[in-house]
Predict the structure.
Amino acid sequence: MSIGVFDFFSGCGGTSKGFQSAGLKPVFALDFDDDAADTFRNNFPDTIFSASDITKFNPGEIDELVGSHDVKLFCGCAPCQPFTMQNTKKPEKKTDTRRSLLSHFGTLIERYLPDYIFVENVPGIQRVCGNSTLTRFKKRLEALGYFPTVGIIESQKYGVPQRRRRLVLLASRHGVIDLPEETHDPDAGAPFSTVREWIAHLPPIKAGETHPDVLNHRAANLSELNLQRIKATPPEGSRADWPVDLRLDCHTKTGYTGHTDVYGRMKWDGPATGLTTRCISLSNGRYGHPEQHRAISVREAAALQTFPDDFQFFGSLNSQARQIGNAVPVTLAQVFGAHILAHARRHAG
């Protein structure tokens, strides 16, 4: 059985790569970020790509393509920034047009009625006050005859070496579909995947250096002061381990309650903290290499998002980090893809 994947907020291709690894076929992708488009096109040369804004996309462009696949999966992993913690404490505002992206995705679903739907976002999408984006979207699916299932998942419980909580919606037109069972549970003898397992094989580099033979193995430069700080950070340590003369003024004030992970080193033998769009910046999280005196490289960040080492990223250093931080972890998508494929086979005919 072949399931055609239509990825409407593809980014660099984390979802599509995971589904491809599970045996599904990415046939169409859409994203209007130029660098993400370059990354996707180079890694999926056989997939039709549209560098379009979904709010302006002409669906007639894919009528024939959609019709050529008996079983179809539509992905709608829209940008999550409007639904982060700091943006979900007040009722929705119409000024942020990104909040309407799921509505445009819903219009495409209504037009084509794909067999399966996959949506991944931050948990905050369901905390928005009032008649939220997610609530409206779920009701729309139910009215179209879908069976939607929504849950908060923890990526490390699906084999991703990263503590990353996400909301996932799965929907089927062929009966109820549950979320896949978790694959990793230390209490059941299936330990979480670790940072060491995914990046220890990569050769050492220095801050500001690019490895000549490993794709995207490039680390951001550090100021002399930040180089002293990372050198003063022990394994698994943080800024709390620095001598007073290296500390930032804001971190020495009485009553400071800011993020404690910034400038910290990752742990070798556990999952990383959740990667963001600034995951190669020492000052933006626990993104210090476990033992080398630098932040993790683009390649290491990609590995912690479970991209294979031959998956190449394009654009500036910051753009590559943004693409990686925004991506759905490949292994997570692979687990969900295999789950969808198994459901489709059970309900075939």
